[in-house]
Amino acid sequence: MQINPVPKEKSILVGLTSELREYLENISLKDFDGQQKVKDYVQSEINKIIFYLGTGTFVLSISFIGYLKNNLLHPKVLIVAWVCLALVILGQVIIHTLSKWVADKKQTLINKSRSSNFNHSWQDATTKDTEIIKWMKYASYLNIIILTLLLGGIIALLFFASSNLLYRN
Predict the structure, then answer these.
(1) Smallest Cα–Cα separation from 53: which of 61, 43, 41, 65?
(2) Average pLDDT in the 91-100 region?
(3) N or C: which end of the chain has fewer CB within 10 A?
(4) How many alpha carbons fall within 13 Å on the CB side of residue 141?
(5) Residues 6+ apart with CB under 8 A from 30
(6) Residue 146 pLDDT > 70, yes or no?
(7) Which residue would you say has higher pLDDT here, 69 or 51?
(8) Measured between alpha carbons, how far is 38 from 101 in angstroms, rounded to an integer?
(9) How far apart are CA 22 and CA 80, in angstroms?
(10) DSSP symbols for 95-151
(11) Which range among 11-15, 58-62, 94-98, 118-122 shows the weakest confidence by mean pLDDT?
(12) The dihedral sign for the CA sequence 98, 99, 104, 105
């Protein structure tokens, strides 16, 4: 949920006392921030799951090699799986770094808006910034690539494991 700003000439805040105006702005800000926290929390948890799954699968596959010792079937498939999973881990580090940068940029924009006496579109400071929009679009593309690499790595690892286990038995 995003708060849509009221045009300045139609703003209900124009004729109000400063205390009431501040009260209404604080309520608006709390609602806006609450919704943003939920959205950020969900995205953070999804990123954690992807990171843990990629890292765990990578480590598990390394331990699997010790079990098989020599005479591996399709070792190139294992290397492909490792490369995919390593790229997942690297991509998640990039996403976290980018998220921190975007959060810092949003805080700067909000502070600038607040220092200009809360103009009528102060919420738009973070949602319409072209630089933030551009980098968030890159982040969404990177998330799609990361999910694809994770799926590819897991499929390659499952293929490698099943072919080697079936060959051994």
Answers:
(1) 61
(2) 85
(3) C
(4) 6
(5) none
(6) yes
(7) 51
(8) 19
(9) 57
(10) HHHHHHHHHHHHHHHHHHHHHTT--TTTTHHHHS-HHHHHHHHHHHHHHHHHHHHHH
(11) 11-15
(12) positive
Q: Which two tokens stand for residue 57?
A: 């699968």
Distance CA 166, CA 162 (A): 6
How is residue 83 written in tokens? 């490369």
Q: According to the model, what pLDDT value does residue 148 have?
A: 95
Least confident stretch, 60-74, 89-103, 109-123: 109-123
Instruction: Return the amino acid letter for 127.
Output: T
Burial class (CB in 10 A: 0-12, 13-18, 19+), 87: middle
Residues 6+ positions from 122 with CB-CB distance below 8 Å: 5, 110, 113, 114
Alpha-carbon span 156 to 84, nearest angstrom: 9
pTM for the complete prediction?
Answer: 0.67
User: Cα 146 to the chain's mean position, in Å?
Assistant: 11
Structure-token pair, residue 85: 């999973």
pLDDT value at 156 more than 90: yes
Q: Which amino acid is at 104?
A: D
